[in-house]
């Protein structure tokens, strides 16, 4: 890998590492090499594995927890699905100070459906009441598949 990337930069600005649980496979050598190749890297994790490596400045940890036992305590931001994972908000609030918390409405039957619209209203109420940020899957809102 060193020889492949040595002295080169990616034609793309960033890299998102996702799928399954990336922290099970990722090691510090690979992360260091990739961080010199990309301007930024976002590691999307469910929080079941702690991040114990040294983290380059251009690497960000996004945590979207599925379980109340969150082992990733140093995420750059957390995202909680509403209403499916709303019970995790208090746990995330405890971990997140002062990290950002995003709430994302669960889409059921399209963004025009009554259920999805209600989920959006719940998210907006949480943003207003608690200072969370709204996260929408924009490609779904505008109809891109």
From TrEMBL:
<protein>
    <recommendedName>
        <fullName>Radical SAM core domain-containing protein</fullName>
    </recommendedName>
</protein>
<dbReference type="InterPro" id="IPR013785">
    <property type="entry name" value="Aldolase_TIM"/>
</dbReference>
């Amino acid at each position: 890998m060193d020889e492949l990337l040595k002295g080169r930069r990616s034609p793309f600005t960033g890299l998102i590492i996702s799928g399954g649980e990336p922290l099970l496979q990722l090691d510090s050598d690979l992360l260091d090499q990739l961080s010199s190749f990309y301007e930024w890297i976002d590691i999307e994790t469910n929080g079941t594995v702690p991040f114990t490596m040294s983290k380059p400045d251009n690497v960000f940890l996004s945590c979207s927890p599925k379980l109340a036992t969150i082992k990733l305590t140093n995420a750059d931001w957390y995202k909680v699905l509403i209403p499916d994972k709303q019970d995790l908000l208090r746990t995330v609030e405890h971990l997140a100070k002062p990290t950002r918390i995003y709430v994302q409405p669960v889409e059921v039957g399209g963004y025009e459906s009554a259920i999805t619209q209600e989920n959006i209203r719940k998210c907006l109420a949480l943003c207003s009441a608690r200072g969370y940020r709204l996260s929408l899957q924009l490609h779904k809102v505008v109809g891109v598949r």
